[in-house]
Amino acid sequence: MISDYMNEMSWAISEIDADKILKMVEVLQTARAKIKGFILLGNGGSGSTASHFAGDLSKSCGIRAFCLNDSIPL
Hints:
Layout (H helix, E strand, L loop, with lengths): L1 H13 L3 H16 L3 E4 L4 H16 L3 E4 L7
Parallel strand pairs: 1-2
């Protein structure tokens, strides 16, 4: 039911550590300012998560990012 879903989402959101999210934003902003990049990788399902995150960093944040799962020669 929708009320169960909303209760679960409310609980999940309440468990988010805002300080960790702010620290991650700070790290990404620093990386972007210094024109450094990220190399990501993963195994199995984590590989597709790494690939997706590399794409998001590149397209949305202007941060150079490579996923080794996608770029085998690298």
